[in-house]
Amino acid sequence: MWAGVLTRRMVLRILLTKNLSCLMPEWLKTVIGTAAICGVGAALLWVTSGLDTLPTLFLLALLGVALCAFLASHWFRRFGWRCPPLPLDDHPRLRAVIEEAARLAGTEPLPFARLTAQTSVSAVRGRGGRVELLLGPHILMGLGEHDLRVLITRELLKVRLWAWHEQWGVHLLRHHPDWDWLRSAVVPVRHKLMTELRSLVGRVAVVDAHRVELLLAGAFDWHVARYMAAFAHKGGAGDLFESFSWKICHDGLPIRVRPRVIALAAKSADVDLAMIDDRNWDPGEPVTDEVRLVAVPGGVVSSVGRRLEHRLSRVVANELFRRVGVPLFGRSYRLRDLSAADWRRPLEIQREAVIDAATRLLGRPATGLDVVELVTAGRAGELEWWHREMACPHPTPGVCALLPLFDVALRRRGYTHERVFAQRVLTGPLGDRVDLVELAGKAERGEPHGLLLEGPVDGKDPDEDAIRLAGESLAAGDPTGWFERLYAESATGGAIVPWDSRSPHSLLVEWTSQQVSPGRGRALVVGAGLGDDAEFVAGLGYETVAFDVSESAVRLARERFRFSGVHYRVADLLGPPAEWRHAFDLVVEIMTVQALPEGLHERATAAIAKFVRPGGTLLVIAAGRAEGGPVFAPAWPLTPSEIAAFAVGGLKVGRVEDLRDGGRHRWRATFHRPI
What percent of the chain lies above the pLDDT cut of 70? Predict the structure, then answer.
């Protein structure tokens, strides 16, 4: 097409053929739309004039609703509403910055300041030829005076140096970065501006200011997507900009988001990035004091007032949803006041997106474990999901993909965010803290992370009731009372027993199949629950005793197996009957000790060891973890030293099997008491 020179004819032809709506003011669009709706309504009324009164009234009401919705949506699209005035008399520091920038740029009179939801500083020539500055609250709250003065000077120079068609050419390139012919025509225009700006404020100041502007824009986009996008249907979040200010001042968001912002800007050939300098901005460039990447705490303006912040947050919500009436009918709310249940859904949506991406990549239904394996294998970059196309503060794509999976898994276990606007740190129902970024980093490096990801995508988590009741019981100082509450509520359908598989444990069945001699003598099943393991052991030929601390569990087991030969007893492992000492040829302990707090493990282990008679065997099956490994309680998986601790009071270690299957770690160990 054209090349080399940007002409009025070139730009006008593009606008008339491809961007005609850009030339139409909002009021004219409103008039045309209103006329169209009224015209259609008049035509329909004429066609249906012979019908009864009721259909006509219904049609009139329908047209009235459509017209009101149209007018409401366009009322809130007006420039004056989307960009409210910012009284400079209320912000003397900002006024001084604008006055200095206007002096440098040679602009008279003083520009008129407006607020905007845009992510960059800009200037336009308003009615009567007066220059109007458009400044976002996040820019004002995050930029220091020096950087803001440079950016305002740049915008004022654009208005003074660029003709209307040159301004439109740069604007069109932002929306059509793939038009190489337009890019080449815009280069001289940009070069003229940057040469003038560098001569006024210096090259280093230009580079610093543009970089911080770019970082703030990327950080704000991420903040909106992470904290507001899922709730935009509610309307405007009154603390959107307040929370962003906290993130940049106290949570280091610009530093953490920096590499991704640079990479995405370079990938999309962002115009402002190209304007920063003649050389590329290396994503691997270390952070130094020479380039200030963290916004100044407090910025030039600490707050523009709740009313204006709320109005702009409604503009952001409307842009996110692009639906009629959102700003009009959306209610005011604060992100800080949303419940844990509200925050849970956005991450579940992200989790589903990652699982879907893994499904497409693998060509089969994927699970959370598949995502972990892909990330560990270094294939996180192949997961195509929407979050990849935006800036984020996560250190690697692998952590980015795993974070929603771990977040959902932990929240389903009763964990809640420690801070509303720093949700990467969660607190468990028993007070333990988990840093999701560190946890995902461990999984990415192939290190044990201790969290299974095979829970349901939808529906109730089977561990939810056990975690809730355990937390309440432990908080009351009763480490075993929650078992009775869990089984009692399960009997009425009010809770789910997560380990109730209605079948004997697979590792127990496998172990017995490997034994040469048939079962004989007496057997004891510890923490028998609903009786499936006890019935299986009895079927091997043992005279079996099974006990549980829960009276409801024992009652339900007896009801399930009315004609069983198993002797079901109510007993406490921490205070068992004296006659059970050295009384059993086979003792089966399956995941009972791990259901107790760590402080009780030693006592429970010693009690179980005492049940084994001379010549008898103890079988232990438990979830495992490394020494000092993470615990997402309950349960408290056993470490190697805790497994070894069963060899106490004369009991000898037989065989210890360290069984690992994907993200699952289990122990199966046998111990013998010599004759």
Answer: 81
Contacts of 324-328 with C-beta under 8 Å, sequence gap 24+, read 324/69, 324/70, 324/72, 324/73, 325/69, 325/72, 325/73, 326/232, 326/233, 326/235, 327/76, 327/235, 327/236, 328/72, 328/73, 328/75, 328/76
The per-residue DSSP string of 367-428 comes to -HHHHHHHHHTT-GGG---GGGGS----SSHHHHHHHHHHHHHHHTTT-EEEETTEEEEEE-
* Residue pLDDT, tens place only, 422-475: 888 888 766 778 889 988 888 888 876 666 655 444 445 566 677 777 777 776
* Beta pairing partners, 657: 668
Q: Tell me the one-letter amino acid at 334.
A: R
State how far the Cα of 105 lies from the Cα of 251, in Å rounded to an integer: 35
Cite the DSSP H helix spans in 452-540: 464-475, 481-491, 506-513, 532-539
Query: 357 by DSSP, 3-state: which?
Result: helix
Q: Tell me the domain boundaries of the chain.
A: 8-75, 81-335, 339-444, 506-672
Q: Which residues contact 537 (CB under 8 A, 6 or more apart)?
A: 508, 519, 523, 525, 544, 586, 588
Pairing of strands 422-427, 416-419: antiparallel
Contacts (Cβ under 8 Å, ≥6 apart) of 341: none
Residue 309: phi and psi, rounded to 5, are: -60, -40
Cβ atoms < 10 Å from Cβ of 401:
29
* Greatest mean pLDDT range, 78-87, 485-494, 555-564: 555-564
Residue, of 423 and 33, whose pLDDT is higher: 423
pLDDT tens track for 237-247: 888 988 998 88
What is the predicted pLDDT for the residue at 269? Answer: 42
How would you classify the pairing of strands 433-435 and 612-623?
A: unpaired
CA distance 560 to 554: 10
Instruction: For residues 69 and 91, give the distance between their C-alpha atoms in angstroms, rounded to a whole number.
Output: 37
Q: In this model, does residue 609 exceed pLDDT 90?
A: yes
pLDDT digits (tens, 9 = 90+) for 565-582: 999 999 999 999 999 999
Beta bridge partner(s), residue 669: 620, 656
Q: Comparing 199-203, 369-373, 412-416, which segment has the lowest mean pLDDT? A: 412-416
- If DSSP states are collapsed to H, E and C, what string results for 179-221? CHHHHHHHHHHHHHHHHHHHHHHCHHHHHHHHHHHHHHHHHHH
> pLDDT digits over 629-653, tens only?
767 767 788 999 999 999 998 899 9
- pLDDT given at position 261: 63
What pLDDT, on the 0 to 100 scale, is given for residue 280?
41
Local structure of 560: helix, strand or coil = helix
32: tokens are: 């045309």
Q: Is 599 helix (H, G, I), strand (E, B) or coil?
A: helix
- 409 close to 464: Cβ distance less than 8 angstroms: no
Q: What is the CATH topology of the domain spanning 506-672?
A: Rossmann fold (3.40.50)
Amino acid code (one letter) for 77: R
Return the half-sphere exposure (C-beta side, CA atoms, 13 A cut-off) of residue 359: 9
Give Cα 623 distance to the centre of its chain: 28
Report phi then psi at 624, rounded to 5.
-120, 160
Q: What is the pLDDT of residue 516?
A: 66
Question: d(Cα 448, Cα 277) in Å, to the nearest integer?
Answer: 45
Contact between 640 and 580 (Cβ < 8 Å): no
**Per-residue tokens: 270:** 């962002």
Which letter does DSSP use for residue 628 in this model?
T
The pLDDT value recorded for residue 283 is: 39
Give the model's pLDDT for residue 472: 74
pTM assigned to the model: 0.71
